[in-house]
């Protein structure tokens, strides 16, 4: 029997590489497309090494219709997982058109290629950012979305709507939007992980670089939130668990499990963790120090957001497995490997 073949756009990136590994482990064939604008070919090599599979890689921009038609032609994809997107909130405020072109334009282009080539199943990388600061916590999939506070956040909302409308209009098309909470950690092999360019925006890469001595100290953005220790609460989801959610989403689509042709799932742990708790846990499980200082709140940050994961648990049969300790160990193992520590 031929294996179902999946196109993974942005497959050289952080979540894309981990998902490619899990897909191959679950019996899918994978083709990776990435323009390497925020990733490195070494990440694809990492996927090949872990899986022992010579995963095909195409360097191309998902916004390029000719290049995408070439990728779709002859591959007979069963589905697409669309990761390719820019993700720096601050940069999106400075360069909104880049974000609308990269994130919205490329998504439309890929969907058009899917329709032209009769490819039916799309899993879209959405984000908990669509909830903003929810009025009630934890956030369920029915929690109303809040107006986006950045062009980046808006692209996630717009792309969800594009997927919903496309599924309604094109009879063969199915869509699942996965709303990721805060992905962290790395593959247990330490062969793939997050590769931020320049100064990391996100908490865990900043912590690992500080522990490695690359950054003098971490700034904790605000300790005056209305939370138990005053620092902000997030739902940190292990990247391997997150990757597995894509596999079950695709299996649901390629099988006959979908309740409706457009579905949305929260992908998180359901457990809120404060910035300070995360730092302290990292220090404890890895036996390293993370010097930090408390600074002012970061513009645009919400106080607290975490997931109600009931729907993913019951409908996808998916649940986060890795503990925060394991995840933070994997993050440090990855940083150590990168820096030869
Ligand atoms: N933080 C610090 N210091 C840092 C970096 C972050 O204190 O140097 C804090 C933030 O203020 C926040 C928490 O750590 O309270 C997590 O921050 P991240 O930047 O790691 O993640 P965010 O929750 O801001 O954003 C992430 C993704 C976005 C996504 C959003 C959805 O980066 O792409 O989750 O909730 F939209």
Give a brief rundown of this model.
The chain has a 7-stranded parallel beta sheet, sandwiched between helices. Strands 7-10 form a two-stranded parallel sheet. Strands 8-13 form a two-stranded parallel ribbon. It is built from 11 helices and 13 strands.
Helix-residue proportion:
40-55%
Proportion in β-strands: 15-25%
Mean pLDDT: 97
Structural class: alpha/beta
Radius of gyration: 19 Å
**First-last Cα distance:** 45 Å
Largest sheet: 7 strands, parallel
Q: List the total number of helices.
A: 11
The ligands bound in this entry are: uridine-5'-diphosphate-4-deoxy-4-fluoro-alpha-D-galactose
**Total beta strands:** 13
Could you name the ranges where pLDDT drops below 50 across 5 or more consecutive residues?
A: none
Multimeric state: single chain
Query: How are the strands ordered across the major sheet?
Result: 3-2-1-4-5-6-11
* SSE sequence, one letter per element: EHEHEHEHHEHEEHEEEHEEHEHH
Shape label: globular
Can you walk through the features of this model?
There is one protein chain. By secondary structure, the protein is an alpha/beta fold. The protein contains eleven helices and 13 strands. The strands form four sheets. It has a seven-stranded parallel beta sheet, sandwiched between helices. The chain has a two-stranded parallel sheet with strand order 7-10. Helix 1 links the parallel strand 1 and strand 2. Helix 1 packs across helix 8, helix 5 (96-117) packs parallel to helix 6 (151-169) and helix 7 packs across helix 11. The relative contact order is 0.14. The structure holds uridine-5'-diphosphate-4-deoxy-4-fluoro-alpha-D-galactose. Uridine-5'-diphosphate-4-deoxy-4-fluoro-alpha-D-galactose binds next to helix 7 and strand 8.
């Amino acid at each position: 029997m031929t294996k179902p073949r999946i196109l993974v756009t942005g497959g050289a990136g952080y979540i894309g590489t981990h998902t490619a590994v899990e897909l191959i482990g679950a019996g899918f064939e994978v083709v990776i497309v990435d323009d390497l604008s925020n990733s490195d070919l070494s990440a694809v090599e990492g996927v090949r090494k872990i899986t022992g599979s010579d995963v095909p890689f195409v360097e191309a921009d998902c916004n390029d219709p000719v290049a995408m038609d070439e990728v779709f032609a002859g591959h007979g994809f069963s589905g697409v997982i669309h990761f390719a997107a820019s993700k720096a909130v601050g940069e999106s405020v400075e360069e909104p058109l880049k974000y609308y072109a990269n994130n919205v334009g490329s998504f439309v282009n890929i969907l058009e290629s899917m329709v032209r080539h009769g490819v039916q199943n799309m899993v879209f990388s959405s984000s908990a950012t669509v909830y903003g600061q929810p009025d009630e916590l934890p956030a369920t999939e029915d929690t109303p979305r809040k107006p986006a506070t950045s062009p980046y956040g808006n692209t996630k909302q717009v792309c969800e709507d594009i997927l919903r409308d496309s599924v309604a209009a094109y009879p063969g098309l199915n869509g699942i939007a996965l709303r990721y909470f805060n992905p962290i950690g790395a593959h247990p092999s330490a062969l793939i992980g997050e590769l931020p360019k320049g100064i990391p925006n996100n908490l865990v890469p900043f912590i690992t670089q500080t522990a490695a001595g690359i950054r003098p100290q971490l700034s904790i953005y605000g300790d005056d939130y209305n939370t138990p220790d005053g620092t902000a609460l997030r739902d940190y989801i292990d990247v391997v668990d997150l990757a597995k959610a894509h596999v079950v989403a695709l299996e649901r689509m390629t099988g006959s499990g979908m309740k409706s042709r457009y579905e949305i799932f929260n992908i998180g742990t359901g457990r809120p963790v404060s910035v300070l708790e995360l730092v302290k846990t990292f220090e404890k499980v890895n036996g390293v120090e993370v010097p930090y200082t408390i600074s002012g709140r970061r513009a645009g940050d919400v106080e607290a957001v975490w997931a109600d994961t009931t729907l993913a648990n019951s409908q996808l049969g998916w649940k986060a497995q890795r503990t925060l300790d394991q995840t933070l160990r994997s993050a440090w193992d990855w940083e150590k490997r990168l820096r030869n520590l």
